[in-house]
Amino acid sequence: MKKDLLTLRDLAADDFESLFDRSFKLKQRRGDGIASGMLRGKTLGLIFDKASTRTRVSFEAAMVQLGGTPLFLNARDTQLIRNEPIADTARVLSRYLDALVVRTYSQDLLEELASEASIPVINGLTDLYHPCQVLSDIMTILEKKGGLDELKIVWIGDGNNVAHSWLNAAAILGFNLTLACPEGFYPRKEILESAQADRKDTIQVISDPQAAVRDADVIYTDVWASMGQESESAHRKKVFRPYQVDRGLVDQAKPDVMVMHCLPAHRGEEITGEVLEGPHSVVWDQAENKLHMHKAILERYIAIDEQ
Questions:
Q1: pLDDT for 234-268, tens place per residue?
Q2: Is the Cβ–Cβ distance between 166 and 133 less than 8 Å?
Q3: Based on the domain organization, do 142 and 264 belong to the same domain?
Q4: 46 & 146 share domain
């Protein structure tokens, strides 16, 4: 029976654990020069409606390293641009491919595609969620910190799609999550309330970044204007200026605090170059771990589809 990864709510705690375990093993195997052919003869389609560097390359490289073949499809080059029904596209691609990674604007479009496809559909980013990103982020925290228990993870900035996936993860795994967002830029109410309903005592949203980072083990930030919000950029720069992750903010956290950013980073806006390139930053390891986590995801979902 096929399964989809549309949000992190599609996973149970045991699913997280198995993905982390497998991603670490795959990272070790790559470091040891051991190739894997788990997906030999399989084909992964990537339908991308938004620009991408890390998500696209890491999924393509992951598929190649697992012995399979990635096939990139710019949405503008498909019949979707001519209003072919999503259901028709899903049914046809299900006859050609073994799984789909979709990066688009609308979560509803993604869910409609998944409902009509007979192959696994994986969310490579929508305006609402970015589940694979947060899976690789938590992998990085586990790698550097050894676990999630007793950690304080702090999100600084916009309550965007990555923040929503952090809320989903915290609701399932139970770690302490504080989000510092300006008024008017909090996460979606229904997503926040759902997470807090599960973890009332460990998830909070406040507007004071200075207070948020006290005793933080992890500080995470992202761009102030996501794709599709370019027209709001000037306004957002003014609103988010107090939320810049600079040395002064980092110094208020724990001495061994980790600084994370899902990239691309705008130095001098949401984060300073000094912090991004500094000793607390783990952004390059974080970016690398997308490759290993995406391998684990592809193995899991394509193998499940065969059972």
A1: 899 999 999 999 999 999 999 999 999 999 999 99
A2: no
A3: yes
A4: no
